[in-house]
Write a structure and sequence with these properties.
mainly alpha; about 0% strand; phospholipid biosynthesis; transmembrane; Acyl-phosphate:glycerol-3-phosphate O-acyltransferase PlsY
């Protein structure tokens, strides 16, 4: 019973989409702006650094909070599955017509709770690549891609490593359109509107 409760709590926390809430507070429907994606990158391109910073912070913190709640409800080993549920909630939020973001910040927030050194390293790599390339999707794929081998190096094994692999896979699948654009040489960059 506690496992189902931990997953439900993580999903519903993950469903709180700051990429929708922050723009709405500024009078903007983010679904009708830019790429239409309610993520940090589109908010940055549409509303600038301050709004994007609020979205990024909110999504990171909800990842931390969802995984913390999962650990409190069902124990630390099960918290890895709570991270997956939070990313699913972010990607398919019940509160926002199941139209969510790609789960990168939420996944990194969960990673920061589960394995702080690996999560921090992945976040720093993400920041460095964004600053160098101005392409959030490249940074996201590399930063999130660090989690699986990084967790394995920190002796994460068994179902916790399977959960981490699922989290990474979900985020990669959510980036399929970005990957197609990258391969075609036309991926969006971070240029504030």
């Amino acid at each position: 019973m506690e496992y189902a409760l931990a997953l439900a709590v993580a999903y519903f926390v993950g469903s709180v989409d700051f990429g929708v809430i922050v723009p709405k507070l500024m009078g903007i429907d983010i679904y009708s702006e830019g790429s239409g994606n309610p993520g940090t990158s589109n908010v940055f391109r549409t509303l600038g650094k301050k709004a994007a910073g609020l979205v990024l912070a909110g999504d990171l913190l909800k990842g931390v909070g969802a995984v913390w709640a999962g650990a409190m409800i069902a124990g630390a080993p099960f918290a890895y599955w709570s991270a997956v549920a939070a990313v699913i909630g972010h990607s398919f939020p019940v509160w926002h017509r199941f139209k969510g973001g790609k789960g990168v910040a939420t996944g990194l927030g969960g990673a920061l709770f589960l394995q702080p050194l690996v999560g921090a390293f992945a976040a720093l790599v993400w920041i460095a690549i964004v600053l160098k390339t101005k392409t959030a999707s490249v940074a996201s794929l590399i930063g999130i891609g660090i989690l699986l081998p990084g967790f394995a190096l920190r002796d994460v094994r068994g179902e916790q490593l399977v959960a981490t692999g699922l989290l990474v896979t979900i985020i990669y699948i959510r980036h399929a359109p970005n990957i197609k654009r990258m391969l075609a040489g036309g991926e969006n960059t971070l240029e504030a509107g």
